[in-house]
């Protein structure tokens, strides 16, 4: 088993802990929380049968038995904590978004590569068997013409936001908003398949404090167009559509789950695929991380980091607009 420590007690942590334990690849040794969240850490440790919790970051930094740390903190501190642990020689899994700027991403990548440390972004989309199947099926569609992604989910915090209560998810200073949250999944899907576009633009609906509560990213590639819609202020059926001159691929549901998709090539019948192995989307990524680590497949680390950097490059451009 690979020993891992958890940083944070927020909404994503119980999901991550469930997925980590379901993967049967990692043993969670410790949970770190800020002092004001000590009780949350204690409750999580009890619920998930974890032997220790702490409010002392140095305890985890200096624990030679810890192989990995998982950073599930607010967006604004991903870079700070990832850098601290990388410099201490720890392998790191950082929750999406990888960082808040491409420059930060590049710095973390440089540290990891120079030390041959394992650094991963926890972005479920890129570890799902259905994603790999879509990638492999793309040549059957002929020349790609249009790619559409829509991930729209009315935020549980949006009603409070409209009343003036600002959670981190809607705080510009903490890098909240639709772009840095659910549209990250759309971007990873498109950039993971097709690389960097040649032109990027972003149009957003902005709330009373300037945060992008929803927005549309327009990506222009050499021979096709892509559009990524992310909304936290409204709801819609989420979907992915890839259109080529010989056929299409269509997936219903959020891109972070990608539970199934269908493909139709002109002249043939519609084929349906549901290839994911685990019920919870996050199990796939932790299984992948463990296998890459055990097999010492560092080229896989390098490839995944290229995608993380490319996505942050797109985010930088969107934030300029």
What can you tell me about this protein's structure?
- There is one protein chain.
- This protein has 321 residues and is an alpha/beta fold.
- The protein has helices at residues 12-23, 38-47, 57-61, 78-87, 102-115, 129-137, 158-162, 182-194, 281-294, 298-320, and strands at residues 2-7, 26-32, 53-54, 68-71, 91-95, 119-122, 144-152, 199-206, 212-220, 225-231, 239-244, 247-252, 261-265, 271-273.
- The strands form two sheets. Strands 8-9-10-7-11-12-13-14 form an eight-stranded mixed sheet, with helices on one face. It has a six-stranded parallel sheet with strand order 3-2-1-4-5-6, sandwiched between helices.
- Helix 8 (182-194) packs across helix 10.
- The chain is globular.
What labels would you give this structure?
321 residues; alpha/beta; 8-stranded mixed beta sheet; 14 strands
Question: What gap, in angstroms, lies between the N and C termini?
Answer: 46 Å
Q: Please mark out the parts with pLDDT under 50 across 5 or more consecutive residues, or reply none.
A: none
The shape is globular
Work out the helicity level.
25-40%
The total of helices stands at: 10
Short description:
This protein has 321 residues and is of the alpha/beta class.
What is this structure's SSE topology?
Layout: E1 2-7, H1 12-23, E2 26-32, H2 38-47, E3 53-54, H3 57-61, E4 68-71, H4 78-87, E5 91-95, H5 102-115, E6 119-122, H6 129-137, E7 144-152, H7 158-162, H8 182-194, E8 199-206, E9 212-220, E10 225-231, E11 239-244, E12 247-252, E13 261-265, E14 271-273, H9 281-294, H10 298-320
Parallel strand pairs: 1-2, 1-4, 2-3, 4-5, 5-6, 7-10
Antiparallel strand pairs: 7-11, 8-9, 9-10, 11-12, 12-13, 13-14
Helix pairs in contact: 1-9, 4-5, 5-10, 8-10
């Amino acid at each position: 088993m690979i020993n891992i420590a958890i940083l944070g007690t927020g909404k994503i942590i119980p999901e991550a802990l469930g997925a980590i334990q379901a993967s049967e690849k990692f043993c969670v040794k410790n949970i770190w929380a800020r002092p004001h969240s000590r009780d949350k850490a204690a409750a999580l440790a009890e619920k998930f049968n974890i032997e220790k919790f702490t409010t002392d970051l140095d305890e985890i930094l200096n624990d030679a038995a810890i192989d990995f740390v998982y950073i599930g903190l607010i967006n604004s501190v991903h870079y700070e904590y990832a850098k601290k642990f990388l410099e201490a020689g720890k392998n790191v899994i950082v929750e999406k978004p990888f960082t808040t700027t491409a420059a930060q991403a590049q710095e973390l990548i440089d540290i990891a590569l120079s030390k041959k440390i394992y650094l991963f972004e926890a972005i479920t989309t890129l570890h799902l068997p259905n994603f790999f199947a879509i990638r492999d099926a793309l040549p059957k569609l002929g020349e790609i013409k249009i790619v559409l992604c829509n991930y729209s989910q009315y935020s549980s915090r949006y009603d409070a936001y409209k009343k003036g209560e600002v959670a981190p998810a809607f705080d510009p200073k903490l890098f909240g908003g639709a772009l840095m949250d659910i549209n990250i999944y759309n971007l990873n899907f498109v950039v993971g398949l097709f690389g960097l576009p040649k032109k990027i633009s972003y149009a957003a609906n902005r709330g009373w404090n300037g945060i992008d509560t929803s927005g549309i990213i327009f990506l222009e590639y050499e021979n096709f167009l892509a559009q990524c819609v992310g909304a936290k202020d409204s709801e819609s059926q989420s979907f992915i559509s890839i259109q080529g001159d010989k056929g299409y691929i269509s997936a219903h549901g959020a891109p972070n789950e990608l539970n199934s998709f269908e493909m139709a090539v002109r002249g043939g019948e519609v084929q349906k695929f549901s290839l994911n192995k685990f019920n919870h989307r996050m199990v796939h990524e932790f299984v992948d991380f463990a296998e890459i680590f055990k097999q010492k497949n560092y080229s896989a680390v390098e490839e995944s980091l290229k995608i993380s950097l490319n996505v942050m490059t797109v985010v930088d451009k969107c934030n300029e607009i």
